[in-house]
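Good morning C.,

I know you're traveling, so I'll keep this short. The sequence:
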Amino acid sequence: MSDLVPADTTEDVRTRGAGVSRQVAVLPVGSFEQHGPYLPLATDTLVACAVAREIAGAYPVHLLPPVTISCSHEHAAWPGTVSISSVTLHAVVRDIAVSLRRSGVDALVVVNGHGGNYVLGNVVQESSARGERMALFPAPEDWEAARERAGVVASLLTDMHAGEIETSILLHAHPEMLRPGYETSDFVADDRRHLLTLGMSGYTDSGVIGRPSLGSAEKGKELLASLADSFGAYFSLLTSDE
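The tokens, ready to paste straight into the viewer:
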């Protein structure tokens, strides 16, 4: 459970906060949606938590428990997928930020594990415009740097869902969660211009878009290490007095 739920006590938080000039909290946001026949519905949550744990291991941040259900409407054709509205997700993240500020934590990083959570960008934009300290991580550039460092073969366009990156991170962080079949489930659909209209079922029967057969635990380890390095710029920005 410590992989998903932080084990901090209130004294741990107090001690960590006393050692920094500005406190930063990290909120993993995942989803509960289909990831083909071999990855669990909670894949995006597991990925977001793995990234957040890597960050917390390298920087003095407060690690929060994950938001486990988000905006997965494009996956509604598959059993097991559960979604909330973008309005609800927006409200949840904003309320968490308000609560943190009341307790002296005025900077929040949202670690997003699901590409369909478009509204998180709006939350961060609006918060920043109000003078609040918030960031969305990782950016596409961070994923691209991680992809290159880890030797991920598929491009970010091709590696859309349940592909090389997600499979690699789970092979490293939660190998017990994978079912047999990822080695033979590659499927590519790079032209997805009508995704918002058709949903994922308009492009894949299996629910997979990517090349999971190329995944490895070593790639997963390097992906997370690269993202932790990239987070340094975000931490510096959010803790700066300028």
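Safe travels,
E.
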